[in-house]
Amino acid sequence: MSDEQSAGPEGPSDTDSPDASKSLEEQYSRIIGRFVQGVELAAATVFAILFAIGVIDLMLQILEAMQSGSITDPLVVIGFIDTGLLLLIIVEVYQTVLAYVEENKTRRIVQLVIYTGVIAMVRKAIIFRTGEYASTKDALFAAGSYGIIIFALVALLFAEQNYGSNAGLLSEE
């Protein structure tokens, strides 16, 4: 600590006060904050690597399907779409982690989480197959659940955008 910080015109610094534990708490808090930020950056790195591996894998799958002639099979194409949407989910999660690291506004983080949810549910709807369920009733229940979740996410996104616009106008006044 410099001389100006330890005894400025305001008097002695916080470290000279009887409650020196505050300084230790602040130091501990900073250390833990750095640790958490390091873990967040490590998670972002993992997601970036997963995305790169996924893109390479998708390209290899497409090349293999072109060589075998199965590129015209609708189920193969749906598999590509599924993989592509999964990669978009990874990108959205990566962006969410970065938003935490960069300490973005809560609104931005909420938007990213909603976008991730919408992509995930659209992916589920695209790959939905009634044959994967034990009965038609189970398939109908799952389809209805997906529909409700998608509707709720879109409603959340709509509300967030409208609220965000109104909140922005109010804060400028």
UniProtKB/TrEMBL annotation:
Chief location: membrane
Region Disordered: start-end pairs: 1-21
Record protein name field: Phosphate-starvation-inducible PsiE family protein
Membrane topology term: Multi-pass membrane protein
InterPro entries on file: P_starv_induced_PsiE-like
Subcellular location, record wording: Cell membrane
Transmembrane segments: 41-63, 75-97, 109-127, 139-159
Keywords: Cell membrane, Membrane, Transmembrane, Transmembrane helix
Ribonucleoprotein as UniProt keyword: no
Pfam family, one: PsiE
